[in-house]
Amino acid sequence: MINRSYDLLTTTEVSQMFKVNRVTVTQWVRAGKLKAIRTLGGYLRVPRENLIEFLNENQLPLPKDLEVEVPCILIAEDNEDAAGLLKKSVLERMPRTRVERADNGVSALIKVGDLKPQVLILDMVMPEMDGLEVIRRIKADPSYSRMVIMAVSAHAEKEGPALGAGADAFFLKQRGFADLLEALPAFLGAANRPR
Questions:
Q1: Where are the domains of the chain?
Q2: Three-state SS for 8?
Q3: CATH number of the domain at 8-66, please?
Q4: What rounded mean pLDDT belongs to the chain?
Q5: What fold is seen in the domain 72-192?
Q6: Which of 48, 73, 75, 191 lies 20 to 30 Å from 117 when distance is taken between CA atoms?
Q7: Is 81 helix (H, G, I), strand (E, B) or coil?
Q8: Where are the beta strands (DSSP E) in the chain?
Q9: Chain centroid, CA 131 distance in Å
Q10: 69 CB contacts (<8 Å, ≥6 apart)?
Q11: Rounded Cα–Cα distance for residues 183 and 187 (Å)
């Protein structure tokens, strides 16, 4: 799966996607049907967005290889107003993300399993299961080792236990979400990097 929106595909990659000869792809480019660029070395490269445009114009389905994975951020916050404000702020800053919400710890664990978010923004004080137990359960499962957990709380004394349990960062709610929002792109990038 191609995960980067700026990919340039070779004519061979395009031909493999559509199970046609590479020469056919080159002919599409020469005929002006498929827009491509030429590298300094003289090779043709097809920008991903041009290939999608070609598919749409010819009413062809989008192959799985061209699907872009939209990063998912899960906000686990029982306060609806705070969650709504945070979601709005995240989407304003990072519009090409999917932001979901869980309103308690149990729901957070279920949604982590369903959504496989890259980042979990986790309130440490929630009903049904507190944030500390959520962190422990997530960290006990190696399949979530790449997920970043950003703990938040109105109580400064929650920082040590949160980080000790495995949270990647801790943010105080009293500062609003400015610090969290400032750090979020870097944490999202870290979650997407191979380990």
A1: 8-66, 72-192
A2: strand
A3: 1.10.10
A4: 86
A5: Rossmann fold (3.40.50)
A6: 48
A7: helix
A8: 8-10, 37-38, 44-47, 72-76, 98-102, 119-123, 148-153, 169-172
A9: 22
A10: 1, 3
A11: 6
Report pTM.
0.66
| CATH fold match for the domains 8-66 and 72-192 | no
| DSSP reduced 3-state for 21 | coil
Distance of CA 21 to the CA centre of its chain: 34
Residues 88, 167: Cα–Cα separation, whole Å? 23
Q: How confident is the model at residue 192 (pLDDT cuts 50, 70, 90)?
A: low
Length of the chain: 195
Neighbours of 46 (CB within 10 A): 22
Residues in contact with 15: Cβ distance below 8 Å, sequence separation at least 6, in sequence order:
21, 22, 24, 25
